[in-house]
């Protein structure tokens, strides 16, 4: 049996040598060109980063270390984190070791709760969650080791410590924020014998007699864990960590980006639209009613939330996984039935409309309905759930970056005047 740290220690020297030799032989070769429209368009599509933890081919969807996400839906979130870090799924004993690591590290310092209790009662859940993470920077092993002096080749070890400590505490913090912010009663202490996802479900306090909510939470955490390195949260955390800021600074920074409505708000927007359908038709609409409602939405200048994706040109396999879970566990739920019906009707409407490059659903088209079914109806909290999951991707990318010795991120910017001169405008 090898712990996650021992496994990484075995891999890292060979990976460093591989990248060193690759750069020596091919470092001068170009991998991308940049158009002026991309420079003004948020660098969309510009290949300028390295991310080995995951990729999103337009015709396949999310691959975690080369494995399609649809093949990982029965895995524990801890297995996904191990896979993100090492490129391998853990053996049974290795999984148990990592789960024990999380269990042993899950206690949240008392001062964190005091800070949260001092915040205004109407504070946004994401602000509370991110504040708690940043407050815990005092616990950083990386900063202490860096201040003491350590070799660059050792940076990954305290970064791993910080990431394990932080990830272990996130469900506890997130559940505490939920119960505090929405008046759900006292915080529920974690159970040492539960896995990461099940513990989160338990601490939220949602009634779960058959254990299906815990299953859904594991699935949710798996599906949202990582999504390449260029999305706002991943890129922000990578940039901040590249300055050798510790995991508390970097994850908090990334999640501040996730709080933005263009990044982390999508699933609640999708659910709002579905609930609007439900209210208008006083239940599940007919196919013709839904088709007309979709056209009315488009003709009013709005989009149908949850349909289309910046990268994908197929149905998001994460949506497929959520849909399969819903069909198995909540087929009679009218909100889920509408989500399912939208999938059969809306792509045809979007194709006929002609403006959508991708008429297929993304992950957000279905995830909110599952949360709603189990009683999590506080929309402003949904991004916190997303954050707990996405922290796995950010942390794994930071561990890999420090292990490989990647430098500070410092792209070159251009003025409009300079760009005009380049094209003779």
Could you characterize the architecture of this molecule?
- This protein has 425 residues and is mainly α.
- The chain has 2 domains: 86-263 and 386-404, Citrate Synthase, domain 1 (Orthogonal Bundle); 266-373, Cytochrome p450-Terp, domain 2.
- The chain contains 19 helices and 3 strands.
- The protein has helices spanning 4-26, 36-40, 77-86, 92-104, 110-118, 125-135, 141-148, 156-181, 196-204, 212-223, 232-242, 247-258, 266-281, 287-299, 317-329, 334-353, 364-373, 382-404, 416-423, and strands at 54-55, 63-64, 67-68.
- Strands 1-2-3 form a 3-stranded antiparallel beta sheet.
- A hairpin with a 7-residue loop joins strand 1 (54-55) and strand 2 (63-64).
- Helix 14 packs across helix 16.
- The longest helix has 26 residues, at 156-181.
List keywords for this structure.
single chain; 425 residues; mainly alpha; Citrate Synthase, domain 1; Cytochrome p450-Terp, domain 2; 2 domains; three-stranded antiparallel β-sheet; 19 helices; globular
Distance between the termini: 64 Å
Gross morphology is globular
Helix tally equals 19
Task: Give unreliable regions as ranges.
Answer: none
CATH class category of the largest domain: Mainly Alpha
Strand content: under 5%
Order of helices and strands: HHEEEHHHHHHHHHHHHHHHHH
Look at the structure and give the mean pLDDT: 96
Task: Trace the largest sheet across and list its strands.
Answer: 1-2-3
Q: Using only CA atoms, what is the Rg? A: 22 Å
Structural class: mainly alpha
CATH structural architecture of the largest domain = Orthogonal Bundle
- As for the CATH topology of the largest domain, it is Citrate Synthase, domain 1
Helix content: 55-70%
- The overall strand count is 3
Query: In the residues, how many domains can be counted?
Result: 2
- What name goes with the CATH superfamily of the largest domain? Citrate Synthase, domain 1
Sheet with most strands? 3 strands, antiparallel
